[in-house]
Design goal:
Blueprint: E1 2-7, E2 10-15, H1 28-42, H2 44-54, H3 60-78
Antiparallel strand pairs: 1-2
Helix pairs in contact: 1-3
Length: about 100
């Protein structure tokens, strides 16, 4: 599989090798890090801190998103093998 990486206006071809050996794909920690990244990007932590500081409850949608992300991370990490495209938006819930 080849991807074209553009750096400084000039294209270079980068070769991405698919892992042929068992056990060298994504790990459970990789899935957990992706879930944490998505939770951080949603603004959950800022809202949680605001809730502790002011007493105003965080939006229910953010609480629900946190539960959904935990569920998806747990489900993906139990798959054997974990899909190589586990970072795809198709697997993860969107904040609405």
């Amino acid at each position: 599989m080849k991807f074209k990486v553009i750096e400084g206006g000039r294209g270079q071809v980068a070769r991405v090798e698919v892992c042929p050996e068992a056990g060298c794909g994504p790990s459970r920690d990789d899935v957990r890090r992706e879930a944490a990244r998505r939770l951080d990007a949603s603004g959950y932590h800022t809202s949680r801190i605001r809730e502790f500081a002011t007493g105003a409850p965080m939006p229910g949608a953010l609480r629900y998103l946190s539960l959904q992300l935990d569920f998806v991370a747990e489900a993906l990490s139990r798959l054997d093998p974990i899909p190589l495209d586990f970072r795809s938006d198709a697997y993860w819930p969107a904040f609405s």
